[in-house]
Amino acid sequence: MSITDGSPISTRELTAEKFGVALGGAAPPTTQGAYTQTYSTADKTISNPTATVVGDLGNGASGASSTGNFDKIEVAIDALIADNLDLRKAITAIIDDLQAFGLVG
Predict the structure, then answer these.
(1) What residue ranges in the chain does DSSP mark as E strands?
(2) What are residue 52's phi and psi, to 5 degrees?
(3) What is the pLDDT of residues 89-105, one digit of tens each?
(4) Contact 57/66 with Cβ under 8 angstroms?
(5) How far apart are CA 79 and CA 68, in angstroms?
(6) What does the pLDDT read at residue 2?
(7) How many domains does the chain have?
(8) Which structural domain, as residue segments, surrounds residue 26?
(9) What are the backbone dihedrals phi and psi of residue 75, each rounded to the nearest 5 degrees, phi first?
(10) Do residues 41 and 68 both lie within one domain?
(11) DSSP assignment string, 52-64
């Protein structure tokens, strides 16, 4: 890859500052603080959600009219936690990729 004057450009030189003009002609963004990632497990597969709408769990407007339905709500909350973790892993992978290209801190 080369820039308009024919000189070579490396991937390392492709920073957000260099892209500032290329992205809609806007001025380059000011440097933002680095991401602090305390969760480090990355996964590039986003699974189908596993959570269920609470109203679909059984009888009653709130879906919690029996002990069995309370158990279903517990399972639904566990599914929401799993879905959140799946998205957290995907976001971590996106941040890792952007950092590898020098586009974010």
Answers:
(1) none
(2) -115, 145
(3) 999 999 999 888 888 87
(4) no
(5) 17
(6) 43
(7) 2
(8) 1-31
(9) -65, -40
(10) yes
(11) --GGGSSSSTTS-
